[in-house]
Amino acid sequence: xxDAMVRIExxxxxxxxxxxxxxxxxxxxxxxxxxxxxxxxxxxxxLLRLISHLDDIDRGRIYVDGRLxxxxxxxxxxxxxxxxxxxxxxxxVGMVFQRFNLFPHLDALANxxxxxxxxxxxxxxxxxxxxxxxxxxxxxxxxxxAYPSQLSGGQQQRVAIARALAMxxxxxxxxxxxxxxxxxxxxxxxxxxxxLARQGMTMIVVTHEMGFAREVADRVMLMDGGVIVxxxxxxxxxxxxREERTRSxxxxxx
Amino acid sequence: MLDPTHLxxxxxxGLVREYxxxxxxxxxxxRTLWISVLAQAAGIALGVLAAVSRNLRIPVxxxxxxxxxxxxxxxxxxxxxxxxxxxxxxxxxxxxxxxxFQFHHDWFLFSPFEAxxxxxSINEGAYMAEIVRAGIxxxxxxxMDAAKALGMTNLxxxxxxxxxxxxxxxxxxxxxxxxxxxxxxxxASVISYPELLFVVRGQYxxxxxxxxxxxVAGIWYLFFTSIFSVLQAELEARLRPDQERQGLRAIxxxxxxxxxxxxxxxxxxxxx
Lengths: 254, 272
What we know:
The complex is a heterodimer of chains A (254) and B (272).
Chain A: E1 4-15, E2 18-29, E3 33-37, H1 44-51, E4 59-64, E5 67-68, E6 71-74, E7 77-80, H2 83-90, E8 93-96, H3 108-119, H4 124-137, H5 153-165, E9 171-175, H6 183-198, E10 202-206, H7 210-216, E11 219-224, E12 227-232, H8 234-239, H9 244-253
Parallel strand pairs in A: 3-10, 3-11, 8-9, 9-10
Antiparallel strand pairs in A: 1-2, 1-4, 4-5, 6-7, 11-12
Chain B: H1 4-9, H2 13-20, H3 23-55, H4 61-74, H5 77-91, E1 95-98, E2 101-104, H6 112-137, H7 141-149, H8 154-184, H9 196-207, H10 210-238, H11 241-245, H12 248-256
Antiparallel strand pairs in B: 1-2
Helix pairs in contact in B: 2-10, 3-4, 3-6, 3-8, 3-9, 4-6, 5-6, 6-8, 7-8, 8-10, 9-10
């Protein structure tokens, strides 16, 4: 067993005739923060959805902490796990969505405690205590009983992060977590993400926030056309990009 | 033959008042209410089962559901009631063994009450399946994604996340369904179940006070439907807890915040 928390091996995915991922391979070490950049339609979000097993993979393997996510391997073939087992595997992977996807019929605290109580069967009292503490950590101690519609976008996204953390995930995936936010609300969400990174959370972050990539990432990757074009430390990636494709991408967004 | 003017002139309001609260009529009205409530409750349960198994594409169950909806929406309710009451005993064999159970002929002889409740429930389930399906489909896909990403199974996602939100879409048409049910239950008179219309017809067959007795039935139907309209409005209001608790300040904040910020987590229908 090596140090890889997430191991992605030659993953392919197509939707109809559209090949979205064409052979993705990389490892994410325990505690490592990966930032994935790339134009829209390059397959970044699809890759995250495969890691959390929200969609099926066509080919290849994805391991989280040494275990296949959503599948079991028998005689070299992948077999999809049943709903219940696949769900348990998914609980190890925290996912934060671009559009928050909070449950609008539940208040902030109930959003955070729902999964621990119903999936992990944590008693209500300890789920509430843990949820309250998580919401305090993301700066929402005074919003425990606010409904999503009463919160700003930045507050909603912080609730969503707390909600994912409540399941004690081994890795957190961020799918353009700040793209739907007003510019002045982006900072508060990035702060929470930086805090998580400092605490040693393994993270895969799809974003357009170059400052965050430079400051927090251990490795920055450029994805385009369903492949990883370049992967490097942030300093090398931004200051001495190797690939022409990376240079043209950076020149357009910086 | 009496001419209509005469009928109208001879309308006896006192008789209406008398029959309205006559024991036999009140009991018939309560029977109407009872089979309607039973059949609606069972219909909702069947509808949720059918819609969920179709939405989650559960093997076999989803095909059975499609067939069920197709068949029971496609044939008249009256035909179905006659089938349960009259035809089922004919097609059931006299006596046969099924594994360890012994089924006997008389098990398949439904009383008018049983046939009415079974027939109305199964018919209603087919319509409720479509209503629940529309409710489930009104919830954005991201909600199920979020539920699954948190480790919930498909069924947990349905039960804890999708269906509670879908209720807002499901309740108004279900109220209409129940009001239809109260009225459609009168079809059970054909299989001689003594509900309101059956009893009223029995009465006017005896005394020829057709207009008065039909009015009595009409008043009872209106009474029930009015009560349930009020209950429905109350239930719909309760399904908007976040709106209720939301003070003036939050509403103002909502109004001045840019729309893009809100679209993510709440479906359009939440914000009426």
